[in-house]
Amino acid sequence: MTVRCKPKLLTLGNRQDRVMIRSYQKGFTLIEVIVIIIILGLLGAIAIPKYISFTKAAERGNVESVIGSLRSALGLYSAKQVVSMQPITAHNPFDDLSVKPPNYVGAFGDVDLSNCTSGSWAYQSGDPGLNGNWAVVCYRPIAALTQAFSWSNTQWIVLVVNEIKNANGTTIGLSLDDYPPAHQW
């Protein structure tokens, strides 16, 4: 938008001559800037919550996919052990995957905030007799969950590798189950 202004008088140096210069200012008026800021604010107010819900849904889908892969891997491991007449033992299910998730940080005796950052998977191989910990799969979510296991004031998805036993007490398979409370998005 072009605004026409009155010509200005300009004094050159020490000379007393006055020169008429036409000045044309270009730019936005204050009202136009305010309208643009209001429009951008409204767009941001609508877009940011949508973006957050999309990222939470994407994380949920990713987590459920990894859990499904781990459950399938445990089932295949159990079947392979039965066919080869080998014992079925609870272990790190990430070891049964042909390709580990890129956000798998490894197995630790104790999973905590220092070795499992937000958005990461880990396996805690803990020894209940030594440090009170147990062997579990842990995921530290980025988005807040409605319900989840919590320690160190941080939410965690905790899954236990349980043995499935027959009536004789023989382990015939493995399952991956939520540690209470079960996580809810």
Keywords:
10 strands; 185 residues
Give the helices and strands, then pairings.
Elements: E1 2-4, E2 8-11, E3 18-21, E4 24-26, H1 30-83, E5 104-108, E6 120-125, H2 128-131, E7 135-140, E8 149-151, E9 154-165, E10 171-178
Parallel strand pairs: 5-6
Antiparallel strand pairs: 1-4, 2-3, 6-7, 7-9, 8-9, 9-10
Distance separating the two termini: 50 Å
Helix-strand topology string: EEEEHEEHEEEE
Our count of helices gives 2
Low-confidence stretches: none
Mean pLDDT: 85
Class by SSE composition: alpha+beta
Radius of gyration from CA coordinates: 32 Å
Q: How many runs of DSSP E, i.e. beta strands?
A: 10
Largest sheet: 6 strands, mixed
Shape: elongated
Determine the strand fraction and express it as a percent band. Answer: 25-35%
Describe the structure in your own words.
This protein has 185 residues and is an alpha+beta fold. The chain has a domain at 63-178. It is 31% helix and 29% strand. It has two helices and ten strands. It has helices at 30-83, 128-131; strands at residues 2-4, 8-11, 18-21, 24-26, 104-108, 120-125, 135-140, 149-151, 154-165, 171-178. It is elongated, with a radius of gyration of 32 Å. The mean pLDDT is 85.
